[in-house]
C-alpha cells in the first residue's frame, strides 16, 4: 500500500502523507519531481536545467532548485516512508466486550409490532427486499421486553458497568408502533421504575397516521418522535395504505394538532425523516418542511442492500441519488444553512477529518490515549451492542435493526434471556477474519462505514484502491472548499457535529 | 503581473500574540520566531484569512519573512496564474469532534457512557493518621504522591475498595492504582486488602515515607503486581535502605523518590546514588515556601529549554486541549471525598454517594484541572510558547503562579 496519495481539487494538486496524516500543496515543478520519483528517477539524479526545459522555462532555475530542495526536505523527513502496518486491523472482539457493551448500552430499541397501517412501496420489509422473509405481523410480548430490561439492570449492577448514570434511550420501532400502544404504555411504566439505574428517554419512529389519537400521552411522557414523511402530498405517493391511497392529510392533521396544543413540543421533540425517491427531490423536501414547520428534515436514500433480484428494475426506477438531487437544488447556500448538522456532506467531512488528519480527534481519549486505534477490526462494523440493543417482536436480540434477523445474538422467551456469548463472539470473529486481508489493502479502511452484515461473499462495494481513494479525497476537498463560502466558521461547525 | 499569495504549510503550527509570532515545522521540528510589528500584523491577517494571504510586493520586511519561511519549509508562495484558485489550507490546531465542555446535544451522553475509560490513575488514601512527625508533611502530598497526616480517624470502607479493585482490571486506559496512608499498615482491614490485591491485574503502588520503613511490613507486599514507592525528603534517612535486600523478596520492585529543596540536598542524593548505582530513582524538587530562589535558578524554564523539548505536533495538540499531568487522575481521601487534584480544596463528590464512574464523569464535565491548559490562564495565554511549554504542574498551583519560566511574562520571543 502506498503511503502517499496525489489528488486534485479545484485545479490544485495536493499530496497527502499517510505517515504524517497531513498534506502539502503541490507546485507543478514538485509534481514533476514526484512523478519522476515514482518512475524510478530519484531526486538526486534530476537536474534543475532539465526540469526548467521540461516546462519550456516557464519556471526559472531558482524555482526548480527550490522545489528540488522541497522534495528532498519531504523525502528526508519521512513524508514518503512506508507505513508501519504491524498492528493493522489485527483486532477481534472478546466475550468481555459483549458484557461491557450490554452494561453500558445507550439505546434499547423494541420492535413492538411487525404490523403497519401503511404499505410503502419502498419499505425495507416490503416486496423489494429479499432479506426479511419471516415477517408475519407479530407483536412484541410485554413479558419479553420486561425480561430484557431486567437483564440490562442486572448488567448495570455488575463490574462491567463503567458508565456514570446516564440517559438510556428507550425506543419504539415497528412496523408502526402506534398500533401497539398498550404494550408501549406498559413498557414505559416499567422502565420508569428503574430510574435509579438510568434516566430513560422515550423515542419513537412513526409514520404519524395515528398521531392525533395519542398526542396527549406522547407529550405527557416527553417522547421524542421521528416522523417519516417525504414532503408534500404529491411527494408522498409512495407512502400509501393497503388500498394504495396516501394518508398525507391524516398525518398532517396529527402534526398540526401538536402544533396547536404544544408548539414547543413540535419544535423540541419532533424531527422528520424523508426518504429520497423518484416522487420527490431535496428541493421539494427542503421547501415543504422549512415553509410548513420551520425546520429541515433528515434525508436518506433508499437502502441499496438486500434488493430482491426480481425487483431490481422496479427499485432502480424509484431510486433517487442524494448527490444528483442535491446538485439540482437552486439555492444550495440556503439548503446547507437549513440542513446544518444534518447535511450528509458535513458528516462525511467530519469522518474524513478525524480518520485521516493528525489535527482532528474524536474526543479526549482519542487525543490522549489514541483510542480510535483500539477497535482495530476490519470493516466499519459497529462494536456489537456498543450503542444499541434491538429486540424484535418475535423476541430475537440483535445489535441493530438494520441487519437481518438471521444474524441474531440471542433470544428472550419464557422470562429468560438466552444467549451464548462465546458462540456469538466466535461467529463474529470468523466473519471478520474472512474479509481481513481485503480490508488491510483498502485505502478507505480508516473511515469505512460498511457493516460486515452487508458484505456478501467477501465482496465489498466500498473497497478503494489508490486511484479510488485519490478521487474520494478530491471530492471531499471540493466539499470542504465550498464550506467557507457559507460564511460559516468551518471549525466551529465541525466542532459542533454530532453523530449518534 | 500575477498576484502572489503566501500560504502556510498545513503541517506548520503557528502561534501569535500582539507582539510576536512563532512558527513550528512539525516535520523537521524547526522553529522560527519574529517580533517585527509588520510581521506580527501579517501573520495575524494570515490566520484570519484561513492561512492564505496576498503578498504586498513592495514590502521588504514581509518579503524577507516569507523567504525565511520558505527556506524552512514553513510556508510557500503561489501565483494565481499558475494554479487559478487559492489552495485550501487546513489549520494545524487540534480539533475535538466531541468536546465535553461544548454545549452541543449528545455530549452528556457521549461522556457519561463508559466514563471510566477516562481514568488512568487512582490514588486512594486508606487512612490519614500517622505517628511519624515528618518535616513539611502537609506540603509534600500537594506536589507529589505522598502520605498525609491529619487528625481524621476516617478509614475508607473496605467494600468500596473491593468494588474498585474488581473493576480497575477491566478499564481500557487504567494504568496505575496508588495506595497511600496515613499509615497503610494501620488500615482496619489491611490483611483482607493484601489478600485481595494478589489477583488484581493492574500495577498497584504502595507509597511509604522513609520514616514508615519496616522490613517485615514490606515482606507482606511481596507480590508480582505490587510496586513499593519509598519517599525520602531532604536526603534524610537514606541509610535505612540498607535493610532492604532483594534476596529476601520474591518479586521486589522498588521505586525511590528523592525529594529535595536545595542544591545541597540534591548533591547528597547524587553521592548516595553513586555508591549504589544499581538503584533507580526519581529526583523531585519540592517547594517549601522558603526556596523560591532555588526554584527560580534551577527549575524555572528558559526559552531554550522549552524549544529543546518540543517533541511533536501531537504534544502540542495535547497541550492545547488537556493538561497531561492532571488528566485521567483521581484522588480518593479516607473520608470518601474525591478530588481531581489535591491542590483543589473542593471535592467532586463522595464515593459513598456516587459511583467511581459518576465521579469521573463529574470531573470531566465540570472539573477544571484535567483541562487546565496554558491557553486558558494568564499570563501564559498571551505567550507564543503557550502550547510548547510543559503543562501547568502542581508546582504552579502551590506557588500560585502560573509562569514558572524566565520569559518574564513575555508575549514575545
Distinctive features:
heterodimer; A: 500 residues; alpha/beta; 10-stranded mixed sheet; 3-stranded antiparallel sheet; 18 helices; 14 strands; disordered C terminus; B: 413 residues; 9-stranded mixed sheet; 14 helices; 16 strands; 28% helix; elongated
Q: What does this entry look like structurally?
A:
The complex is a heterodimer of chains A (500) and B (413). Chain A is α/β, with parallel strands linked by helices. Helices cover 40% and strands 14% of the residues of chain A. In chain A, the strands form 2 sheets. A 10-stranded mixed β-sheet of chain A has the order 9-8-7-6-5-4-11-12-13-14. Chain A has a 3-stranded antiparallel β-sheet with strand order 1-2-3. Chain A is globular. The C terminus of chain A is likely disordered. Chain B has 413 residues and is α/β, with parallel strands linked by helices. Chain B is 28% helix and 18% strand. Chain B is built from 14 helices and 16 strands. In chain B, the strands form 3 sheets. Chain B has a 9-stranded mixed β-sheet with strand order 13-12-11-10-9-8-14-15-16, covered by helices on one side. The model of chain B has no long low-confidence stretch (mean pLDDT 88).
Extended strand count of chain A:
14
What percent of residues of chain B are in strands? 15-25%
pLDDT < 50 stretches of chain A: 485-489, 495-500
Largest interface: A-B, 61 and 70 residues
- Spatial shape of chain A: globular
Mean pLDDT of chain A: 89
Biggest sheet strand order of chain A reads 9-8-7-6-5-4-11-12-13-14
The radius of gyration over CA of chain B amounts to: 26 Å
Oligomer: heterodimer
Q: Describe the sheet with the most strands of chain B.
A: 9 strands, mixed
Largest sheet of chain A: 10 strands, mixed
SSE layout and pairing:
The complex is a heterodimer of chains A (500) and B (413).
Chain A: E1 4-9, E2 12-17, E3 22-26, H1 28-38, H2 48-54, H3 61-76, H4 95-103, E4 107-111, H5 142-156, E5 167-173, H6 181-192, E6 199-206, H7 211-220, E7 224-228, H8 248-261, H9 263-269, E8 270-275, H10 282-293, E9 298-300, H11 312-318, H12 322-328, H13 332-339, H14 344-356, E10 360-361, H15 364-369, E11 388-391, E12 396-398, E13 410-413, E14 416-419, H16 421-440, H17 466-482, H18 490-496
Parallel strand pairs in A: 4-5, 4-11, 5-6, 6-7, 7-8, 8-9
Antiparallel strand pairs in A: 1-2, 2-3, 11-12, 12-13, 13-14
Helix pairs in contact in A: 1-3, 2-3, 4-5, 5-6, 7-8, 8-9
Chain B: E1 4-8, E2 12-16, E3 21-25, E4 30-34, H1 37-48, E5 52-54, H2 60-71, E6 75-79, H3 80-83, E7 95-96, H4 107-112, E8 121-125, H5 137-140, H6 158-168, E9 176-180, H7 190-197, E10 204-209, H8 215-219, E11 226-233, E12 254-260, H9 263-275, E13 281-285, H10 292-298, H11 303-308, H12 313-321, E14 329-332, E15 337-339, E16 349-350, H13 356-366, H14 394-399
Parallel strand pairs in B: 8-9, 8-14, 9-10, 10-11, 11-12, 12-13
Antiparallel strand pairs in B: 1-5, 1-6, 2-3, 3-4, 14-15, 15-16
